[in-house]
Amino acid sequence: MAQDRRPAGRSERRVPGERKPREERWAQLLEVATQVFYEKGYEGASLQDIADRLGMLKGSLYYYIQSKEDLLFEVISEVHREGYAVVRTAAATGGDPLERLERTIRAHVEHACRNLVPTAVFLHELESLPAARRDAILGAGHAYQGVFRDLVAEAQRDGLARPDVDPRVAGLSILGSTNWVYRWFRPDGPSTPEEIGVQLAAMAVHGVATADALAARVAAVGA
Amino acid sequence: MAQDRRPAGRSERRVPGERKPREERWAQLLEVATQVFYEKGYEGASLQDIADRLGMLKGSLYYYIQSKEDLLFEVISEVHREGYAVVRTAAATGGDPLERLERTIRAHVEHACRNLVPTAVFLHELESLPAARRDAILGAGHAYQGVFRDLVAEAQRDGLARPDVDPRVAGLSILGSTNWVYRWFRPDGPSTPEEIGVQLAAMAVHGVATADALAARVAAVGA
DNA sequence: GGGCACCTACCGAACGTATGGTGGTCGGCG
DNA sequence: CGCCGACCACCATACGTTCGGTAGGTGCCC
């Protein structure tokens, strides 16, 4: 390139720029990278953009990373680990399968709403990674979608979900409706994350439950 | 650049390449561009890639387009127009709101399954367009999502949908679950487009309908 | 019916710029 | 002093875009 971008002015000896301890800078780098990938997409984003926002030169980034792709991998890994932990926890704690399904959906939605930008990067740029690294993140069996599928299947075994529901498709349907949220949720919009979580969970539960199970739920709440 | 890519071989006088009439080439260009955008993403795709597959030099593409962005715009416009037409038609034909909702979802899903690649490009690369052109395609009011929202709202007015359902969120939930399909549907997978459509439609209808409306549906089918 | 004008569909080559990445350097803090 | 954190200069490559040129075709006029 012609020359790396300078903050301003001629080539007087550059001001040294802030020095920060490694860990702090690393966290800041992940944050900035996430934001830039969000705004421009992985391919559209340049290391120059990221370096600019950190107030350093792009060459200096290689003190922290080995390649641009590594950076994306790191960003996406972190997002996925967090989200998966949230969902696993919600799905594992007590209650009948329908209760756990409802709680899991709400947790998932609220987490996505509160982490809009990372979530968007995850869902958008996962495919920008080579298949091997993608699989390393998702786990061999696409564990994420398995959580919802298994909850539906379990509800079905307990007679709480309609027998004509295909648990696999139902799980994917739920994953779709919840993973779509990042596209339309706005923090200053008409609905809070909690409200949205409640709505989506209610729709999903009604979507798969038997009439009896639903009636029993109403009775339990009324009691 | 070093030199435009050749089909093969040394620099013997280039074979002239097929000449085709304008309309035919234009259709082929749109098709190839869709495929390449699908495989590499808009930013990741190069005009060189597209030209190679058409058997022409990248400079020659400018006989047909004004810019790379124009090409994306054209591709996405076409996909959206088709999909919107399908959904509008399904939503407009007769029946009570729940029946129309079901039919519309099934039509939408089947159409997406049968047009996987264009659908994926539409959903992935819409944001690669500048806001103005995006709005030009979607229409000011995001008409697409409005179709589902309106059907739910209508059902609600007729007492067929539960009053605690937020039609806006419900519409977006449906759009999410159906627009997610392109991520997991495989033509050689275990479910046909029709089966998936039926499943998703059933879940959505059960998700919003009142117990009475559902009971009435069952009775009607039984009769 | 032959020549001339003009169009179509594409070639070939270049331009300017940006990109991911490398390697050597160097001030300051502990 | 040593090393951390960053600077700086520099590749090689790839990209979108532009532009002049040209072989083949079509229609028209004499």
From TrEMBL, chains A, B:
The record ties this protein, via PROSITE patterns, to: HTH_TETR_2
Chain intervals for the UniProt region annotation (Disordered): 1-21
Annotated DNA-binding residue span(s)? 46-65
Q: Does the entry feature the keyword Transcription regulation, yes or no? A: yes
**Keyword annotations:** DNA-binding, Repressor, Transcription, Transcription regulation
- The HTH tetR-type domain covers which part of the protein? 23-83
- Name a Pfam family for this protein: TetR_C_24
Q: Does the keyword Ion transport apply?
A: no
Q: Could you tell me the superkingdom of the organism this chain comes from?
A: Bacteria
Q: What is this protein called?
A: TetR/AcrR family transcriptional regulator
Q: Which organism is it from?
A: Actinomycetospora straminea
